[in-house]
Amino acid sequence: MKPEAFHPLARLLHWLMAVLIVAMLFIGVSMVSDLSLRHPLLIELHKATGLALLVLVLLRIALRLTLPHPPLPRDLPTLQRLAAGASHLVLYALMLAMPLLGWAMLSAGGYPRPLQLPAIAPHDLQLYAVLRQAHGWAGYLLFATVVLHLGAALMHALVRRDGVLRSMWPGPLRRSD
């Protein structure tokens, strides 16, 4: 039997990661748009938060694969059902790729890594340039995917009123029907 809501730990991770990801997107855009904002503390915060997000997304993927989760509404059109599945795969892929690209970028550039993590790419400035560009483009794609995800959540909450947003809402679940 499928639950009506996501496991409380899954909901906690979802909202914690949502806040951290939005913060990281703003920090990242600020760092590249204004060189005066490349303060060492901001860069270290970006690295540490990226590492935390990598750990959290691995935990989140493990929970998603092991815990039962509520089904999509039965009356959801097939195209929307496929779009929901595809967008979640893209979100998970980007949440995993972003910190790995950042880690590889730091490794290739010869920069210090948080917690003195080992290098995962060879020291190569051409590779660094490619990884930096990939990290930036993946950030824009993540932003667009998050906006799409938010739009879909609002559509479920305000237009369809089908309980999808309620199933991931933090805190106690209250039925509105």
Please explain how this structure is put together:
- This protein is mainly alpha-helical and 177 residues long.
- The longest helix is centred in the C-terminal third of the chain and has 36 residues, at 125-160.
- It has five helices and no strands.
- The chain has one domain (8-168): Transmembrane di-heme cytochromes, Chain C (Fumarate Reductase Cytochrome B subunit, Up-down Bundle).
- Helix 1 packs antiparallel against helix 2 and helix 2 (40-66) crosses helix 3 (78-109).
Please write out the topology.
Elements: H1 8-33, H2 40-66, H3 78-109, H4 125-160, H5 164-168
Task: Name a few traits of the molecule.
mainly alpha, 177 residues, Fumarate Reductase Cytochrome B subunit
Query: What is the CATH homology-level superfamily?
Result: Transmembrane di-heme cytochromes, Chain C
Structural class: mainly alpha
Q: Please state the second-level CATH architecture.
A: Up-down Bundle
CA radius of gyration is 18 Å
Biggest sheet layout: none
